[in-house]
Design goal:
The chain has 3 domains: about 5-215, TIM Barrel; about 235-320 and about 465-505, 3-Layer(aba) Sandwich (Rossmann fold), CATH 3.40.50; about 320-465, NAD(P)-binding Rossmann-like Domain (Rossmann fold, 3-Layer(aba) Sandwich). Helices cover about 30% and strands about 20% of the residues. The chain has helices spanning about 15-25, 45-50, 70-85, 120-130, 150-155, 175-180, 205-210, 235-245, 260-270, 295-300, 320-330, 355-365, 380-390, 445-450, 460-475, 485-495, 495-505, and strands at about 5-10, 30-35, 55-60, 90-95, 105-115, 135-140, 165-170, 185-190, 220-225, 250-255, 275-280, 305-310, 315, 345-350, 370-375, 390-395, 405-410, 435, 455-460. An 8-stranded parallel beta sheet has the order 7-6-5-4-3-2-1-8. The protein is elongated, with a radius of gyration of 26 Å. The relative contact order is 0.08.
Length: about 525
């Protein structure tokens, strides 16, 4: 079973001891004490006296991502003292490993860090590390693209000793989770959300309750979401919790994938294997070149938000459009003559012409709606309108007509730019139907103003949940997530207290985006 190593990095001894006590209450299997963070000489005996689980002593140099500012001679002396005093493990860098000899029962983690990227000679470097009298080999290198993840993880297939091989940075976040599937003995995680000491490190809380790290094993099937940026995505939350609620041995992880790296990433993901992917901006149209589809929306628009791996290729789907239609029908008034809810012949203004808008436009047309598309870039609106048989409008013309339905499929109004709106309040009228696909915040400026003016409103959460539920069915051979659970999870995540924690976790790397 995969173990978690809580990382404690504090300047004062009293805080180290307090955090150790908190970690023990969490029932962690292992703790790393970052002695290089202490602002005074480490009191090794005092720390060991409070030990309730195995401890790793780490004194990292600045060039390896640490804070130790003393001489190298002093640092090595402290490492040898940690061994002699009885720390269970000592972390020694590969270039000094032979100068810190074994003593007693202390085990050795021989490590190599590279904050510049993945070295060309990665495989040879790993071979050399395994020959340095290590109990655990650790190699941590900075990923500069998502496909780096699979190269680094492949080291675990050829490991002769217990090995930690992962990537630093947001591009490499998935490796901190996927190592458990390939036999890594443990993973590092921050005990304190405000004390994340390495780029891409997750918290103990996220590892346990967002990714269910202790449940990952060799049989776990891997799914994920690709986009750039990706740190804002709530897809890992809703999918992972629902997988576990249904007892499915599946893991869903975020992959930040650049446009340039997309072809290589998909190739490596197929080999790994990754069994399914949600797709968000900017890849919804680009993935069309990397799979096959019978989905009418994908065929009509060349835009997909879901990829499912088969034995020979990726199968493409679009759940954005049907989700938007379902969200609109939920709030649409019943036609007094037919007694039904219908979008047929409704005049719809679709604001935006990107990947999410493409699926929505095609689905609205399929429902018989009369759709006009506007975008700040007229050529984009014309291109999408040409694909699905709609009318394109210049941005300034979006208030010229009278519409039954307005759909915002742009990021306007997304956190932190919450004072923006794609459609001015003066054009809103009572009874109009509004859908804003932005889900962070759920009550965007457009949503709030529409409610004030008596409009019927569907929010980004309504659409997000529906498209995620459809993806879940594709990832699970037709299973449905527990009723209402996805919506509850999303709304809880955006509650004031959870929102503050979330912003601390992602450290400003992104916030909410349309669909996924």
């Amino acid at each position: 079973m995969a173990k978690l190593c809580g990382v404690i990095a504090r300047k004062r001894h009293v805080k180290v001891l307090e955090e150790m006590a908190a970690a023990h209450r969490l029932g962690l299997d292992l703790l790393e004490i970052r002695l290089d963070f202490l602002n005074r000489e480490p009191r090794l005996k005092e720390i060991l006296a409070h030990r309730k689980c195995p401890l790793i002593a780490t004194i990292r140099r600045k060039k390896d991502g640490g804070l130790f500012s003393g001489s190298e001679e002093k640092r090595r002396a402290l490492l040898r003292a940690a061994v002699a005093e009885g720390f269970d493990y000592v972390d020694v860098e590969s270039d000094v490993a032979l100068t810190v000899p074994r003593y007693g029962d202390a085990k050795r983690i021989v490590s190599h860090h590279d904050f510049s990227g993945v070295p060309e000679n990665l495989e040879g470097l790993f071979t050399d590390l395994q020959d340095l009298d290590a109990d655990v080999v650790k190699i941590a290198v900075k990923a500069t693209k998502a496909s780096d993840c699979f190269r680094v993880l492949s080291l675990l297939h050829r490991a002769k000793k217990p090995t930690l091989a992962f990537c630093l940075g947001e591009y490499g976040l998935a490796t901190r989770l996927l190592g458990a599937k390939l036999g890594a003995p443990f993973a590092y995680a921050a005990v304190n959300v405000m004390r994340i000491v390495a780029p891409g490190m997750l918290t103990v809380d996220d590892m346990r309750h967002l990714y269910f790290y202790d449940k990952i094993d060799a049989a776990t099937q891997v799914y994920g979401v690709i986009g750039d940026p990706i740190s804002h995505s709530l897809s890992p939350l809703v999918h992972n919790v629902c997988f576990r609620q249904l007892g499915l041995n599946k893991l869903y992880v975020p992959f930040r994938v650049s446009s340039e790296d997309l072809p290589r990433f998909l190739e490596r993901a197929t080999e790994f294997p990754v069994f399914g992917l949600s797709v968000t901006i900017p890849h919804k149209e680009a993935v069309a070149a990397h799979g096959k589809s019978d989905d009418l929306i994908v065929k009509a628009t060349g835009s997909a938000n879901t990829m499912v791996r088969t034995n020979s290729h990726w199968r493409l789907y679009n759940t954005d459009g049907p989700a938007a239609v379902a969200a609109l029908l939920e709030v649409l008034p019943i036609d007094p003559e037919s007694g039904l809810k219908s979008l047929a012949d409704r005049k719809v203004l679709l604001v935006g012409a990107g990947g999410a808008a493409a699926g929505i436009a095609a689905s609205l047309k399929e429902e018989g709606a009369s759709v006009s598309i506007t975008s700040r870039t007229l050529d984009n609106a014309r291109a999408l309108a040409g694909k699905v048989g709609c009318r394109a409008l210049e941005w300034e013309q979006r208030y010229a007509g009278i519409y039954d339905v307005v759909v915002n499929a742009t990021p306007l109004g997304m956190h932190p730019n919450v004072n923006e709106s794609a459609y001015h309040q003066s054009a809103l009228r009572e009874g109009m139907v509004i859908l804003d696909v932005v889900y962070n915040p759920e009550n965007t400026l457009l949503v709030s103003e529409a409610k004030t003016r008596g409009c019927r409103v569907a929010t980004g959460v309504d659409m997000f949940v529906r498209q995620a539920e459809a993806q879940f069915a594709l990832f699970t051979d037709g299973k449905s997530p527990p009723g209402g659970l996805m919506a509850d999870l999303v709304r809880e995540e955006f509650s004031p207290a959870r929102s503050m924690l979330r912003q601390a976790r992602i450290r400003g790397n992104g916030t909410g985006s349309p669909a996924t």
